[in-house]
């Protein structure tokens, strides 16, 4: 196992088993000590999971038509792009991968799921259990992963807030749809109070060059991450990630007026991990590349 992998992945049984098999790790991001994504590809492999200590959501991205799960002497098929598998902590499973397969895993601990249910629904989650799913259909999960998660840059701090939002939405969806205890749909009654919204905006402006996490923003106003994201959008008209992106681009516009700053320096000071990602996001929001915008100013 690579020494630079975050502790979350070093302790995840499913991650470790795939790392020891033929699977190729195509990306990973740790959202917290108990929540993270990994993207994998695999071909012609056999893998078994023995009572992992964490939950795993698997979402197929491509291939998988010849992937099967072995239950006793029976082989269960049905793999395809968009299919999901939910493997609760403590389960045992054997998998037969023939042909090619690409998929995303969300690893999350029992404690992270309990904490989320207690924060969001204000319910005791100590006796909660998760359903086990094999090759199931869930358009909400598939859409979140295929259309949002895969569009983000997992290695750029500018997208970290959005990655946390995706993780939060998936965790809440799993808790609501696949737990042993029915959970009522959540209703948004109001947004943030004006002083709460201003406190968040002030914090964002002061930390644009740094990682801004959903947990930090939610803690400023004493809310769960899920409620905060919904209430912030209700009050501001933008998701936290979109608002932070627009403020970073606004800062970059001011910095582009300084001829002595290189584009790479501006990217760093605006909170982007690379010049390439800075240029892509700047053009997405303004219609100009940073270079073209600077030339137009001149």
From TrEMBL:
Q: Spell out the InterPro entries in the cross-references.
A: AraC_XylS_family_regulators, Homeodomain-like_sf, HTH_AraC, HTH_AraC-typ_CS, Tscrpt_reg_AraC-type_HTH
Q: Which residues form the HTH araC/xylS-type domain?
A: 198-296
A Pfam family annotated for this chain is HTH_18
Q: Does the keyword S-adenosyl-L-methionine apply?
A: no
What keywords are assigned to this protein?
A: DNA-binding, Transcription, Transcription regulation
Under the heading PANTHER family, the entry gives: ARAC SUBFAMILY, HTH-TYPE TRANSCRIPTIONAL ACTIVATOR RHAS-RELATED
Protein name as it appears in the record: Transcriptional regulator
Q: Which gene encodes it?
A: lumQ
